[in-house]
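Re: beginner question about structure tokens

> Can someone show what the tokenized structure looks like for a real chain? I only ever see the sequence side.

Sure, here's an example I had lying around. Input first:
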Amino acid sequence: MENDDNQQPLISHLIELRDRLLRAILAVLIIALCLFPFANELYIFLSEPLLRHLPETSSMIATEVASPFLTPFKLTLSTAIMLAVPILLYQLWAFVAPGLYEHERKIVFPLLFASTLLFLLGILFAYFVVFPLIFGFLTQAAPEGVAVMTDISSYLDFVLKLFFAFGLAFEVPIATVLLVWTGASTVESLKQKRPYIIVGAFVIGMLLTPPDIISQTLLALPVWLLFELGLLCSRWLPKRAQAAEE
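And the corresponding structure tokens:
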């Protein structure tokens, strides 16, 4: 009888988790269905930073038979997931919130909101700042006699990788705040590690971006500046243990 009592809360949690996952998937599918009629327009908008720097005699190409359909479809699905991030995080928040203390709820929800905003800002920074510089450099660096004609599928994979890299890099303030709030580190300790973090930012830029100094630097500098922003915000943040005692 006691085992049945223990299993029932577990089953109810699993049912709630299933419902939350289904709602998240449904939200992505609905957004994707709404965007699908505009799939080609979305791809044109995404490719504009490259097309602007291509010679007049060059264009983008499709080297696979299904690429003209599958590539815009993949972009539509990726865009739907990005736009659904607030809904996905809300479902996560609604699932874990009942198990949190009051002081934890006060900080977890703002962190979820801030992380969503920072991720989207990272994507916008990549599109409006990084892409024009990268594609301007790469198209000009092509040897004489070489026609720059990028495959549409390869281009999409390239920009999605950069979107993810910059979106993830812009989460540095959240990671910094969490380190201080949980007591895993202190502001003073992180300040002492600043030189290592700056070097690490350039290493991350080297690993997550194409092998050119422009994109690597444009990723490393925001990581450093956002780390400093995280330190600034952490000064006004009480530690988790102290908040629990209060």
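Each token stands for a local structural state, so reading them left to right follows the chain. The longest helix spans residues 102-140.
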